[in-house]
Amino acid sequence: MTKVYAPNKNYNGVSATVHFVNGVGETDNQSLLRWFESRGYKVEGEAKAKPSAKAPAKSKAPAKGKAPAKKAEETTPPAEETPEE
């Protein structure tokens, strides 16, 4: 786990899902480590925050055997008109 040091050394609480006690929290989530560093927290440990390679984009094609999702206008019934008096 990588230690994260809050700017407030007396901070006790949860920030970005990380529990802090006396200003010290721990996480291995690289995105959170970068987020904390960008906001003035000190990050140290065996897994110093490094930019990670982006995962390849998922295909937008529907899975085999599944129909594509319907658009909102296809699934929403038309509004009923009320007759005027």
Write a brief structural summary.
The chain has 85 residues and is an alpha+beta fold. The protein is built from 2 helices and 5 strands, in the order ββββαβα.
List keywords for this structure.
elongated, 85 residues, 15% helix, 3-stranded antiparallel sheet, alpha+beta
Notes on the protein architecture:
The structure is a single chain. The protein has two helices and five strands. The chain has helices spanning 30-38, 72-75; strands at 2-5, 13-15, 18-20, 24-27, 42-44. The protein has a three-stranded antiparallel sheet, with helices on one face. A two-stranded antiparallel sheet has the order 2-3. It has a domain at 1-50. It is of the alpha+beta class. The model has no long low-confidence stretch (mean pLDDT 77). The chain starts with a strand and ends in a 10-residue tail after the last helix. Helix content is 15%, strand content 20%.
Number of strands: 5
Major β-sheet profile = 3 strands, antiparallel
Helix content: 10-25%
Secondary-structure-derived class: alpha+beta
In one word, what is the shape? Answer: elongated
Q: Alpha-carbon distance between the termini?
A: 71 Å
Task: Please state the average pLDDT score.
Answer: 77
- Assembly state of the chains shown: single chain
